[in-house]
């Protein structure tokens, strides 16, 4: 599969008997087991990053939203703290099924254009079906690599990564590209898993040895790479508006809480 050029929307040709959106959000014990099988056993194989992503996600699109709602905490919180400037452009990098667009509520209509960018065709099909179902005229699902995507306008007011930065091997490149496309004064919003550095910047949370190592190893089996460097990198390139470091439940693991952060940073106006 090749990467489509920027602003080429996902193929809309779909004739589903069950809506992919309801399949993604309907959870059951068996859909959870299927997802866990993909996460623990199958993991994600292939020669390229895109092939590994598609291999990992193609069997999970159904039940994805339901399972991830219980694993990926803080997304609504992030969106509640982001501005929706009238006529603005929002780019969601690693958008998956496009569920984040729901988090704006009515404020989604403020944007002139919204780009839901992802490399997984299976998840983008759900995003495209969601766009059609909701009748969102200003939203497009785009098959593209987050490290090189640029909206047709050339600039964005709001860029987000929600639990995608840890899945992008060239995360520096993805953050640099996000900052490049932001207008001066525009905001970057991120929610993701992480571990702290052994010696984090002053004011940031410090995780103990077991936390730092356990979660890195546990997530790495699914090609999710937790880093102590994401936050310090963001903090050194943007003006921090919001930083909240927390922990959240993991389905079927009652005694542990995985660390995640919610970050909003503003591109300096020079
Ligand atoms: C854990 S999912 C999160 C999806 C969604 N943002 C959410 O909050 O539910 C990570 C997403 O990042 C996407 N992704 C990983 N690397 C990418 C890349 N280089 N370019 C675009 N998307 C990427 C994956 O395909 C996947 O949809």
What does this structure look like?
The protein is α/β, with parallel strands linked by helices. It has nine helices and seven strands; from the N terminus they run αααααββαββαβααββ. β2, α6 and β3 (139-143) form a beta-alpha-beta unit. 41% of the residues are buried. Mean pLDDT is 88; it is low at 1-7 and 12-16. S-adenosylmethionine is lined by residues 53, 68, 72, 75, 94-96, 99-100, 117-120, 123, 145-147, 162-164, 167-168. The site of S-adenosylmethionine has 22 residues, from β2.
Structure at a glance:
Keywords: Methyltransferase, Transferase, Ubiquinone. With 270 residues, this protein is an alpha/beta fold. It has helices spanning 20-25, 29-42, 49-57, 64-69, 75-80, 121-134, 171-181, 209-220, 230-237; strands at 89-93, 113-118, 139-143, 156-162, 182-193, 239-250, 253-266.
Core attributes:
Rossmann fold, 7 strands, 23% strand, binds S-adenosylmethionine, 9 helices, 270 residues
